[in-house]
Structure formats: C-alpha cells, structure tokens
Inverse folding.
C-alpha cells in the first residue's frame, strides 16, 4: 500500500473537494469498484446502492454542511455520480445492513503520561486487496484550525488531529441494533470532530450529536497547557456512551463495546479476535508507554501464532472478503501537530520506514 500526500490552503470546502477529486479521480474510482465488489461478496443488493449512497449524502449535508459541500466537490472533480461518493462514505453503514462482521480490524492504544502529550498508536486493519492506495491530507478550516488526517480515497476521514490539540483514533464496532437504514456515516463523524473541536468536551459533544446507523468508537485525545486527556466515545444505533480516561491513564480499544449497557447488544461473536487482542494490549502496557512511537510499536508485535492478530496477516486460502491485513501503523503527535506512520503492519516497521506528515 502507498500513502499519498495532499496539502492545500483552500478554505472553501467545495473547491477543496473538487481539487482532491480531480487530483485522485483514478484512485477514488478504483475504491468505488473495490467496495462494489466487497458489497457483492457479502450479498448487499447492488440495485439498492444508489439510494443508500444518496441517503448517506443527505444525512451529511444536514448534519455537517461543509463536509457535504466537500463531497459534492469531490464527486464533481472525480467525474462520478453523487451517489457513489455517498456510497463510499457509508461503506460501514452499508455493511451493517447485512450484518457483515469482519474477523480482522483495528487495535488502539493511548497512554496519558503525567506530563507531556498523549502517547498513541494504532493499527488499521482492512481487506488486503481493497486499498492499494490511501491518503493523508493537510488543510485549514474556516475557523482557523489546521487539520491533518489519514483516510481511504473518497472518504472524509478516519484517523487524524488538528493543531488545537485534538486527535482521533478510530475502531469499528458491531451492535445488534445497527443496520436499520442509513444514518450519519461514522467516517464523517470522525472528520467533523477534527474540523470543529478545540477541546475534549467539544469533541465529545460533536461525536455524541450524530444519529448513526453503524457502530464505532472514537478514542479522542487532547493536549492543552501541558495536560494530556482522552475519552472513548462508543457510538451505535442502540445509543452512545463516553468512557472517561481511567486513573492510570491507559485507554485501550479493539472491536467490542466496553460500556456495559452497550455491550449487552454486542454483535461480535465470543470467539472473535477482538477479545484476546485487548487482553494482549493490556499485558503490554509498558511497551506501549514508550516515548518514541517507533519503540511503541513493540507493544503491537503480537500475531495469530502468539494468540491474537494485533499484527494481522492475510490467509491466502480465504476469499478476499474474509482476508485481513494490518495496512498501516499510525500514531498522533499532538505536541507537534503531525501524523506519524508506517505503510504496513507493526512487524515490518523500521526506523527508516517511519514517516512524518
């Protein structure tokens, strides 16, 4: 996988989206075709995709008009129908309509030291053949923030930070109530936090305001006046919950609910890797607390053979919709407002492969 870079000073969301769509039209179209193939494999009714995409875009237009304007611009720049850009951004919500639950997915660690910025890191796991190229973007908001984020082509956001000291890590969850229609896409929620929040309280409020139809957890970190803080906002159709940072300052998350009320509707099977992955993260806290993010990666070096695929490799014997791979290893540097990442899973990280954006 190659992570492409795009930096702009464009303040107008439509023009910014149009420029991104024009610059990366081929990659966006390839991502659309990849997701249509995935939807066919998990038996999403392809005839219904235009309506689902249009509904998702309408929700974004109402809930976050600037983000909606950016998507309208992206569609124009890439020369694609609006419903297709809506479909891309609702890929999680569309998968939820058929209860498509993946065995792979992300593992996130945040450590809050007594002094200094949060020490964060996560893997992003997804289907190994669906994302040959991804994107990091830097742009200014109309309110004067500078945002940097990582995402898939054509999708509003995923993992990122702003220069007001707010950052977001992102893990998919699965709740029994999910999949009834299409709500505000969770990827739009992650991006809206970065665009709109200057404090942890503002970030939580933005996330909690979204009426979603698929589940996710945003691990939101903040750093202001030398003080690190964080909270985990679990979102689902069955309700939202905010988990405050514990006294020991360790916030870990994989792909199941930690809030007791929401956990009652947990859809991930008990044999899922999400549960042992969390246990392995808990056992490796000392490694995950390293100041240097490259040293922090050692806390993620757990494979299936070790009992949990935190560092996930695809099984070539499986069909592509059942194959998973750790595609990026990424950390947030809130002190210097930058993303740090490696193109690949933790076991291939080398100091010379670690990139800064």
């Amino acid at each position: 996988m190659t992570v492409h870079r795009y930096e702009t000073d464009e303040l107008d969301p439509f023009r910014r989206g149009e420029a991104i769509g024009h610059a990366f039209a081929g990659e966006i179209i390839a991502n659309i075709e990849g997701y249509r193939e995935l939807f066919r494999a998990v038996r999403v009714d392809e005839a219904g995709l235009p309506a689902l995409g249009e509904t998702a875009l309408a929700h974004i237009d109402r809930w976050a008009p600037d983000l909606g304007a950016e998507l309208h611009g992206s569609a124009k720049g890439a020369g694609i129908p609006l419903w297709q850009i809506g479909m891309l951004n609702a890929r999680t919500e569309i998968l939820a309509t058929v209860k498509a639950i993946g065995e792979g997915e992300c593992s996130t660690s945040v450590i809050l030291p007594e002094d200094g910025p949060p020490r964060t890191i996560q893997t992003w796991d997804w289907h190994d053949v669906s994302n040959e190229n991804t994107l990091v973007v830097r742009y200014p908001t109309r309110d004067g923030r500078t945002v940097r984020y990582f995402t898939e082509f054509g999708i509003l956001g995923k993992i990122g930070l702003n220069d007001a000291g707010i950052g977001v890590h992102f893990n998919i969850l699965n709740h029994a109530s999910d999949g009834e229609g299409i709500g505000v896409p969770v990827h739009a929620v992650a991006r809206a936090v970065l665009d709109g929040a200057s404090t942890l309280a503002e970030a939580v409020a933005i996330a909690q305001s979204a009426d979603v139809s698929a589940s996710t957890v945003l691990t939101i970190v903040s750093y202001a006046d030398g003080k690190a803080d964080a909270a985990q906002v679990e979102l689902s159709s069955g309700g939202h919950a905010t988990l405050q940072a514990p006294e020991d300052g360790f916030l870990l998350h994989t792909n199941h609910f930690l809030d007791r009320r929401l956990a009652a509707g947990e859809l991930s099977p008990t044999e899922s890797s999400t549960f042992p992955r969390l246990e392995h993260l808990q056992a490796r806290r000392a490694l995950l607390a390293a100041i240097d993010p490259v040293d922090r990666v050692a806390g993620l070096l757990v494979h299936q053979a070790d009992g949990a695929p935190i560092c996930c490799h695809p099984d070539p014997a499986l069909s592509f919709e059942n194959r998973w791979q750790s595609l990026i290893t990424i950390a947030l540097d809130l002190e210097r407002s930058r993303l740090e990442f490696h193109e690949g899973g933790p076991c291939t990280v080398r100091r010379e492969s670690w990139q800064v954006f």
In short: Residues 25-41 form the longest helix (17 residues). The chain has a mean pLDDT of 96. The chain is about 30% helix and 25% strand. The two ends are 17 Å apart (CA to CA).
